[in-house]
Amino acid sequence: MEKASIYKQVFLKASKGEKLTDQEWEELERFVVERMPEFYKFVSSRQYALTTNMYHVCILVRLQTPITSVANMMGVKPPTISKMCSVILKKLFNKEGSGKELEQELIQFN
I want to staple 97 with a disulfide (CB 3.0 to 4.6 A). Which of 76, 84, 88, 101 is the partner? Predict the structure, then answer.
């Protein structure tokens, strides 16, 4: 997975604190469909409950991207992402918690 060009590109941008372009989001979504079909199936089957930003947060959290980097790549502040992670955790798993708990739940899906 780490050898994929989009994976490298995302983490390079994460390290620089840069936003992802629409084209990069599309590539990342294709990557997820191809490389993590169970994760994609789970999240897409519940996409009605998620905004596009929440869906993108799920992808980045599943890729174990730090919250600060997720915020940078989405052009928002880290507290916004932390709050969003809590909301996503509640919507997808009916649990209370933080981004770390969300990551632990999402990591189960390949």
Answer: 101
